[in-house]
Design a protein that fits this description.
By secondary structure, this protein is α+β, with helices and mostly antiparallel strands. The chain contains 4 helices and 7 strands; from the N terminus they run H-E-E-H-E-H-E-E-E-E-H. Strands 5-3-4-6-7 form a 5-stranded mixed β-sheet. Strands 1-2 form a two-stranded antiparallel sheet. The longest helix has 21 residues, at 2-22.
Length: 167
């Protein structure tokens, strides 16, 4: 299951890069406005044209996948780094890939933690790392980085330095 999840994260990283290529280098926004939905359109929907199927959004080990209420959202196990994809907490605001100092060392996507948090992303500055499923696969979980690669990391490797989350 860990291997399937890591493959999902690789596909998501590649899809996010393709999105960026099509949108002038912008990282896929965590949320986009929608005229009839208060919370808008989740990144899990915006990334769909770049994925083969929605199953890629689900970790086989996640017993509590979530769908964001009040938004157009696919069922998902993964969350986006809000420091990159919801800048200042604003819907539709994301950074350009070129503005990130080290894309290979900056987390874009992570595994989300259980049913307690019905969310689309993680903000490390607001204590959001508790939303990360740090031990889903043994003593760690899978992450996708801005450059598109994915790897397994123990939670302590992502908490310090915070620069892994910080653009």
């Amino acid at each position: 299951e860990s291997t399937s999840c890591l493959a999902n994260m690789r596909h998501l990283g590649t899809a996010a890069r393709l999105y960026s290529d099509d949108y002038d280098g912008l990282i896929i926004p965590a949320m986009l406005p929608h005229p009839h939905l208060p919370r808008g359109v989740c990144w899990t929907v915006s990334i769909q044209p770049y994925l083969n199927n929605t199953e890629i959004l689900l970790c086989p080990s996640d017993e509590h996948p979530r769908r964001l209420p009040g938004a157009l959202s696919e069922l998902h196990s993964y969350g986006i780094n809000l420091a990159l994809a919801e800048v200042g907490g604003y819907m539709g605001s994301s950074l350009q890939v070129v503005s990130i100092e080290d894309p290979a060392a900056t987390i874009l996507l992570c595994e989300l933690n259980g049913a307690r948090f019905c969310t689309h992303g993680v903000n490390y500055e607001a204590g959001g790392l508790e939303r990360v499923a740090g031990h889903r696969h043994g003593n760690g979980s899978n992450y996708s980085f801005v450059d598109g690669h994915a790897k397994w990391l123990p939670p302590e490797a992502t908490a310090e330095p915070e620069s892994l989350w910080d653009p």
